[in-house]
Each structure stands twice: as C-alpha cells, then as structure tokens.
Specification:
The protein is α/β, with parallel strands linked by helices and 161 residues long. It has one domain: 3-Layer(aba) Sandwich (Rossmann fold), CATH 3.40.50.360. Strands 1, 2, 3, 4, 5 and 6 form a six-stranded parallel beta sheet that branches. Helix 1 packs across helix 6. Bound molecules: flavin mononucleotide. Flavin mononucleotide binds next to helix 1, strand 4 and helix 4.
Length: 161
C-alpha cells in the first residue's frame, strides 16, 4: 500500500509527529509520501490512505490544512481512509482553568478536519490522533512519538491487509 502523510507546523512539533507516523508506515513495509503543506505540492496526491495533520491554534486547524482537505479530490479519495491528527496544548491542572481551556482543545484541529472530510463524503477514521505538547510551543509531551506510532500501527491493522 501507499500512504500519504501531509502536515502543517509552525514550531516543528506536528512535523515530528508526521515523521513518526511516516516511519511507522514505512517500517511495516508500505510506501509513504510525506509532505509539508508549507511547500509547493501536487494537490492531487494519490495513495491508499492519507493522514492530514495540523497544530490546533485558536481552537482550530491552520488555513493551509483546511484548504488542503477542501481541495482533496473526492473521486480518487472516495472510500479510502482519511486519518487526521493534531498537536494541542496541555490541559491545565486547575479545575476552573480546565473548564475554560476545554473549548480551545476538545474540538480542535483534528476533530474539525475530520468533520470537514466527513461532510465532503470522505471516509474518516476515528478517533483522530491527538498529541499534547508542553507549553504553548512545545516540545512534545513525553511518549508522544510512541503514541503516534502505536496509533498508526493500530490504524494499519484496522485495514486488515
Ligand atoms: C497563537 C497560538 C494559539 C494557540 N491556540 C491553541 C488552542 O486554541 N488550543 C490548543 O490546544 N493549543 C493552542 N496552541 C498551542 C499549539 O497547539 C502548539 O503551539 C502546537 O501544537 C505546536 O505545533 P507546531 O510546532 O507543529 O506548530 C496555540 C499556540 C499558539 C502559538
């Protein structure tokens, strides 16, 4: 199979998650096409499944990630799994602060990208992969890359091929 992994990233955290996903796909013997949305790219990438990732900022995905999904070719991606992932800030310890933070975290980039893809009639894999960073700009939380790899392994197993 061939997997496509596309991502946006400001500080490199989502990039590292994308690389871990790509590494797992490759280590299971599949081909992988890893692309940043910050460079020119062929908008009509082809593959058997696709991972789309973005940092969550202001409670949503980046514009680049949103535009990418909106422009995905429904014909060629129909029925092929679309997996979304994001990086998010940590939940505050304090109960009151948690309540406030929830709306900026829970329905963030990955859930929103999945909802968008689903509305377009694409086959989204659920739940999306969500990875915490420490602080507002990272670095990644402990065990983040292992979590990304385990998730990818589980996803590939779900394909049953
Ligand atoms: C301007 C700004 C807004 C942010 N807004 C949110 C937010 O609403 N929710 C959240 O969970 N994290 C938020 N964060 C933290 C980002 O998720 C974090 O910077 C990101 O995961 C880093 O990924 P990157 O290195 O790939 O850019 C914000 C960070 C910045 C700098």
């Amino acid at each position: 199979m061939k997997g496509v992994v596309v991502y946006d990233s400001y500080y490199g955290n989502t990039k590292k998650v994308a690389e871990a996903i790509a590494e797992q796909i490759r280590s299971e013997g599949h081909e992988v096409d890893l692309r940043t949305l910050r460079e020119r790219y062929d908008k009509q990438v082809q593959g058997d499944f696709i991972f789309v990732g973005s940092p969550t900022r202001m409670g949503k995905m980046t514009r680049r990630a949103k535009v990418f999904v909106k422009k995905m070719d429904k014909g060629s991606w129909k029925e092929k799994p679309v997996v979304t992932f994001d990086t998010i800030m940590p939940m505050p310890e304090d109960e009151k602060e948690r309540e406030k933070a929830r709306k900026w975290i829970e329905n963030g980039a990955a859930p929103k990208l999945s909802a968008l893809a689903k509305n377009m009639g694409l086959a989204t894999y659920s739940p999306p992969l969500r990875i915490e960073v420490t602080g507002m700009k990272g670095p990644l939380s402990e065990g983040a890359l292992e979590k990304a790899k385990d998730y990818t392994k589980e996803f590939l197993r779900s394909l049953g091929r």
